């Protein structure tokens, strides 16, 4: 999987996921994103428009990232999730843990709401 970090609105980082998130790349993805969080950006949006699949290892990486962001006073929101990744999130009930938004703008606006993270 490739991911492209892109900062918007100052302290909100958008990460565009491209490909799958599984055992072959989850550790690197997690390490790279946690470095962003440790660098002071705890409000993250992961754009999943081009995410093709997520394994249990990939879910673990997302949970670690969300946990670290929360400890830093931030949050992780997912947008444009569909297909197999959405099915995996529903089956694992993680759709109740992560904020899921139909598009990037709604995810970004959710951070601007008083209880948005």
Assembly level = single chain
- Please state the second-level CATH architecture: 2-Layer Sandwich
CATH evolutionary superfamily = STAS domain
Which class do the helix and strand fractions yield?
A: alpha/beta
Task: Using the coordinates shown, work out and report the CATH topology.
Answer: Transcription Regulator spoIIAA
Number of helices: 4
**Biggest sheet character:** 5 strands, mixed
Overview features:
117 residues; alpha/beta; five-stranded mixed sheet; 4 helices
In short:
This protein is α/β, with parallel strands linked by helices and 117 residues long. It has helices spanning 26-38, 56-71, 83-91, 104-112, and strands spanning 2-8, 12-21, 43-54, 75-79, 99-101.
Structure description:
- With 117 residues, the protein is α/β, with parallel strands linked by helices.
- The chain has one domain: STAS domain (Transcription Regulator spoIIAA), CATH 3.30.750.24.
- Helix content is 40%, strand content 32%.
- The protein contains four helices and five strands; from the N terminus they run ββαβαβαβα.
- The protein has helices at 26-38, 56-71, 83-91, 104-112; strands spanning 2-8, 12-21, 43-54, 75-79, 99-101.
- It has a five-stranded mixed beta sheet, sandwiched between helices.
- α1 (26-38) packs parallel to α2 (56-71).
- The longest helix is centred in the middle third of the chain and has 16 residues, at 56-71.
- It is globular.
- The model has no long low-confidence stretch (mean pLDDT 92).
């Amino acid at each position: 999987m490739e991911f492209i970090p892109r900062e918007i609105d100052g302290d909100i980082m958008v990460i565009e996921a491209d490909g799958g998130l599984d055992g072959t790349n989850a550790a690197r993805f997690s390490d790279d994103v946690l470095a962003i969080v440790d660098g002071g950006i705890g409000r993250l949006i992961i754009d999943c428009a081009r995410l093709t699949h997520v394994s249990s290892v990939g879910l673990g990486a997302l949970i670690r990232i969300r946990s670290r962001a929360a400890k830093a006073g931030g949050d992780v929101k997912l947008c444009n999730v569909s297909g197999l990744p959405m099915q995996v999130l529903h089956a694992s009930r993680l759709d109740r843990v992560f904020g899921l938004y139909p598009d990037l703008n709604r995810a970004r606006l959710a951070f601007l709401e008083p209880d948005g993270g």
